[in-house]
Amino acid sequence: MVRSFTSWTKTLSFPARLNTHHKQQISSKENTLSSSSSSHSSDLPMICSQTKSRTPLSLTPDVSDSEKDTMGSLIHCIHYKEGCKWYDELKSLKGHLQTCKYDAIPCNKCLAAIPKTLMEDHSKFTCPERITTCQYCLESFSGMEMEDHTGHCSYEMVYCENKCGHKIQRRLMAKHRANDCYKRLVACRYCSKSYVADTLVTHQTKCTRAPIPCPNQCEMVALPREELDVHIKEHCNSLLVSCVFKDAGCRFKGMRGETMEKHIEENVNQHMLLMCSLVSKQQQQISTLKSALNKVTLNYSGTLIWKITDYSLKCQESIELLSPSFYTSQFGYKLQVSLFLNGNGAGEGTHVSVYIKLLPGEYDALLKWPFSHSVSFTLFDQSEKPVNVVESFVPDPTWENFQRPSKQPDSLGFGFPRFVSLDTIRKRQFLKDDAIFIRVKVDPSKIVAV
Ligand SMILES: [Zn+2]
Ligand SMILES: [Zn+2]
Ligand SMILES: [Zn+2]
Ligand SMILES: [Zn+2]
Ligand SMILES: [Zn+2]
Ligand SMILES: [Zn+2]
Ligand SMILES: [Zn+2]
């Protein structure tokens, strides 16, 4: 029989220091201890108390201070008589006995020398020759075989390595991981990318390659999600679309494809009429816009600076050039300048001729007639020290040209047929970069430059 530490310490009666308040308790147990110790007296360890006290002591668990003292007592090994030289505190004895060669006996199975205190443990749990039964597969193994078997028994319940939380017999694990584990990787059947099984359904609600039926219920049964937009916009034959002549006023809506083609074919005349009325409506809009634009850009300053570009080309054409119209003030007279680069009348072929004429204006009814503002024409010299050509006049009240203009105004106006000679214009720098500048200034002050 294996003797445990507790079994032999209970048989002891040895001297130890005693705490005064434990005295009573201890003396009452003394008799019991003494009587049970007698049969084991040969096994008693040699006790050397650290104190002079000779009072017997028990190791009852509730006498903790005394126990501490006792455990600190210095003793020899229980195999002292057989030759073991070990000598230390009582509390280290158990540890020592695990290595004490005097305490060892051969295991009856594996024949290894095992300390007596460990023999029970050895034959139950560590002896390589012990016979043991696997708790999972219930098969019998020698201790040595068991070492190899442990951790490999195919009937042991183990957790799935994918951390899905499943615990199943090892032999079923491969099948679980391949087919059932919801943490296994599976390929999406539409886009072929790999997803953890329990996220696959969520993925497929967004997968760009997952097929979706056309919301217009056209002949296309289903198509990949990412192609649906283009299909609806460009190819779906069940999409209701407006007639291409919608902007012209056609209200027809029909399915793209055959239905729409038929509508267009059968309604050529109606569509033509709609287009015609749209065109005339737009023409009206254009002219309204034009006049609005003219008003915005109208010159109300009484001064026009007119740049004539492409001089050489316009010289060859010998035609009348008309300036943009302008007003003497916001509610004043409306005027226009005309220019003959190769002359007109008395200046024909020798001079540049320039005239001003009155156009019918918005406020003519309120203005004073005849027109009597002074008018001056200036041809700019574009050199650094310019010497401009200036001609001006104050209208004579008797002149026809300055009466209130009719709807078909005088075709020429009044001015200078010999404004500047063709020779002069090529001298200095009146002509530069193939352009000349003429200023026409209309002034109510009647003061004129001479
Ligand atoms: Zn020993
Ligand atoms: Zn053994
Ligand atoms: Zn097993
Ligand atoms: Zn799993
Ligand atoms: Zn997918
Ligand atoms: Zn469709
Ligand atoms: Zn139509």
Automatic annotation (TrEMBL):
UniProt keyword terms in alphabetical order: Cytoplasm, Metal-binding, Receptor, Repeat, Zinc, Zinc-finger
Zn finger region (TRAF-type): 96-147, 149-200, 202-251
Domain of life: Eukaryota
MF annotations from Gene Ontology: tumor necrosis factor receptor binding; ubiquitin protein ligase binding; zinc ion binding
Stored Pfam families: TRAF-mep_MATH (PF21355), zf-TRAF (PF02176)
MATH domain residues: 301-442
Gene Ontology BP term (one): signal transduction
Annotated Low complexity bias: 27-42
Residues covered by the TRAF-type domain: 96-147, 149-200, 202-251
PROSITE patterns assigned: MATH, ZF_TRAF
SMART domains per UniProt: MATH (SM00061)
Region spans: Disordered: 21-47
Main location: cytoplasm
Location(s), subcellular: Cytoplasm
Name assigned to this protein: TNF receptor-associated factor 4 isoform X1
Lineage of origin: Eukaryota, Metazoa, Ecdysozoa, Arthropoda, Hexapoda
Gene designation: LOC103507530
